[in-house]
Amino acid sequence: MKHMTNRLTWRLATLMVAVVVFISMAEPVTSSKSHNRNTTLMRSYCSLFRGRSEKYFLSNLNATLSSLRQQLSVNGVRYAVARTLLNGESVWGLASCRGYVSNADCVACFDYAVTQLKVCGTVNGANAYYNDCDVRYENVNFYADANIRAGAVICGNKTSPQASDFRKTTKSLLSDLRIATPKTSNYYAASTRRVSNSNVTVYAIAQCNLNLTQNVCQECLNSRYSSLDDCLPGTTGRAIDNGCFMRYSRTPFFGQNQTTDITNLLGDGDSSKKKSIIGGVVGGVCFLFLILAYFLWRLRSKNKNSCGRDRTSGSTELLQGPTRYTYDDLKIATNNFSDEYKLGGGAFGDVYKGKFKNGDTIAIKKTVMTSTRRKIHIDDELKIICNVHHRHLIRLIGYCCKGPLLFLVHEYMENGSLDQFLYGDKSRNLTWSQRFDIIFGTARGLAYLHEQYHVTIIHGDIKTSNILLDNELHPKIADFGLIRLLPEDKTHFSTKLPGSLDSAYVAPEYAVHGQLSEKVDTYSFGILVLEIISGKRCHVVKDGEFGSQSLLDHAWNLYECGEHLNLMDDRLDPSEYQAEDAKKIIEIALTCTQSPVSARPAMSEVVALLSDRSLEEILLVRSTFHDDDVKIEVDT
């Protein structure tokens, strides 16, 4: 029976090659409606193969498309991504509207595209390109795709009477757009240019998918710019790719008030004027540094090495440095860094317990500094970390430099780290109230680092071993700011993560492209919450229904089935918590782990959501989990 099913599936897939694959490269076909811009289909395609489980794949496809439509319905949103996973059948979706279309036109174009995608049935992937939008879904993550070899160009059939001047003007405009667009915040630019010796105006746009890096966007547009040369001196041309889109026309297709000022993005302004401005700025900055250095000298002379002391003056706190210890002090405190004093290790080095002669117990982190530039600025970086004071952040007391080694002295937490409580030697049953306090306190600490301290600090390595617990089991975040001290060649991950860095916590844009932002911490926080809620490690979860998979995928599976509460740790007493509160926190964690960076909340938003007992609030703030009316119905 299994072999018969496989043969039938293959025959259906072969039939799809003949029946379903649809490529349209013709000029736009207008409809009878007065407003037909959204019905202008440029190109579409269907995959050759069907999903392994059409039942689940179709359900996931409908959920993904519903999420895309709901996002596009929000005023000002022109780009949406969504992923749905159920029983191993992932569906990744992307919808992008051109920057000049209204919300109504954007949603209408999306609906036309979904209608076109119905032709494909439940194949593994499909795409529909329209003048005003494009919609794509696949069973793999394609968000970083920009296939510059598989693009297409569509040219008009009319030639401009001012052939030479029209070609020159259009090429110049398109060239400027390909340079300026990757530098805009939304990867979109629209501009016009008058053809010399005529009253003809050229209208043109360029746009990239927001999930691309700036360099990939640039490469994609360079390729599309070259391909449009084949259309000139034709009056219209459109160049399509998986990651970008360019279009020009002699006929207006966006309003004069919808153009983008790209002058400052081209880098061709008056050089002498720029030099004078730069010179003035540099001179002013140098003068300010001299003043700052003078005040620093005065303050240090009055209160040297005072970071570890109690202070009441908030005005000078930011300018005070950490205590500098001698290497002998730390050797004595740790019995020459013996193994019996070793507490553990991580991405930033080994940690030892120490005890000074005055009886103070401390924690000492030993790391290697191989960067000369970092060594030069070590005092400034440590000064920033030293002056962070928050009840949920570990306090830096002092430091010591010994050759390439850097030792950081922190306050000591007797209860150790959260991972020891959840899984390690100290494993014990944390109550619901204790777990919530740990989640809430960690969120508050991260929000302070991101938005409330005078310098934005990104942690970059949030995980259970970096959440320490005080005597009352209140959380304190360790290792914050240390990413600022890493050598330049280790300040981001490559596609092959170092063994000391836990890939299960790492946001995809950081792991693949090295893109570091506050939202990297938001992603890791979401994974952390799932671990605290479930009592399971984030790497692999074994479940009879879903098999072996990561904790994140397991949580998504349960969410899609409406079985949130099955994620809860069996050691928790259900009478300790309200079901709606538990569901709300799980949903907050899942919002934090969404692949598009823009869809993740800021940590201050997370704090607000955790503070509010109303489940309705999170449903209003993040609507990407809920279905709309979009459905793909096919005969299977």
How would you describe the overall organization of this protein?
The protein is α+β, with helices and mostly antiparallel strands and 636 residues long. The chain has 4 domains: 119 residues, Gnk2 domain, C-X8-C-X2-C motif (Killer Toxin P4, Chain A, 2-Layer Sandwich), CATH 3.30.430.20; 111 residues, Killer Toxin P4, Chain A (2-Layer Sandwich), CATH 3.30.430; 94 residues, Phosphorylase Kinase, domain 1 (2-Layer Sandwich), CATH 3.30.200.20; 204 residues, Transferase(Phosphotransferase), domain 1 (Orthogonal Bundle), CATH 1.10.510. 36% of the residues lie in helices and 18% in strands. It is built from 17 helices and 20 strands. The chain has a 6-stranded mixed sheet with strand order 11-15-16-14-13-12, sandwiched between helices. The chain has a 5-stranded antiparallel sheet with strand order 1-4-5-3-2. It has a 5-stranded antiparallel sheet with strand order 6-9-10-8-7, covered by helices on one side. A hairpin with a 6-residue loop joins β7 and β8. α4 packs antiparallel against α5. The chain is globular. The two termini are 18 Å apart. The N terminus is likely disordered.
